[in-house]
Amino acid sequence: MRYTKNWKEYELIDATNGNRLERWGDKILIRPDPQIIWNTEAKDIRWKNADGIYHRSNSGGGSWEVKNKDIQTSWSISYKGLKFGIKIMNFKHTGVFPEQATNWDLLDKIISSSENKKMNVLNLFAYTGGATLASAKAGAKVCHVDASKGMVSWARENAKMSNLENSPIRWIVDDCEKFVLREIRRNNKYDGIIMDPPSYGRGPNGEIWKIEDNLFEFVNECEKLLSDDPEFFIINSYSTGFSASTIEYLVSEIVKKKHGGFVFSSEIGIKVTSSGLVLPSGSTVIWSKRKWF
Predict the structure, then answer these.
(1) pTM of the entire predicted model
(2) Residue 94 buriedness (CB in 10 A; 0-12 / 13-18 / 19+)
(3) Which of 58, 87, 187, 238 is the most exposed place for a label (fewest CB within 10 A)?
(4) Which three-class secondary structure state does DSSP give residue 112?
């Protein structure tokens, strides 16, 4: 399993009884996590005095119990010079998936060490821009695409806080599938593609995305956007229905078969301070021209 050891302003303090105890800067949050099926003793005093707790509802969704009004407004955390606005949102989210930092590190390594100093990167389902900012900071030109206008605005704010507002980033609010088809017609090409597709989602005009129905054809179309000498193709997945090996097979059939190179898949996670163990938090499949693992 891959995980980063470089977080300073985020910490997964403890994990038990279906919940995470987390530190986001100077704020302590408790959030549910379906992977946490064990019930070990909750010794840390911060379980009792967290700033906010997200409670699941039996009917679906849930709500925040706010114990510190400071978390009702946004605050920020940093990772290696990248800065992210944090706020409590519906369905337990905060605007950052900290486990993705291990992939930000990889992007920095690939892009900064490439002989291609004009690398063109496409980030699909790009959310609040973690991979976009990491790629831009490493020197790439980036096209950031997400169906949510609010998320793209949030990503632009993160870029500004990270002193990357003048970096060559295109900010696109669009359905990712439709955008890719238009880029194919325009004959645009990218040296690296990143995607973080949801298990289920809707585009800005009600388009329905189901990962089990759409992913194969979508990756097929995205491969057509790769340049003649691409560097990487990365798929992140949080879908419990697919193992990393399943998506590795798909990427091998579509991308490696045409471009050679290497395919690597693994779970990604976050180290739990109290136990020293790593909590699995999704998986990543990486095709790359060069061997990184």
Answers:
(1) 0.94
(2) buried
(3) 58
(4) helix
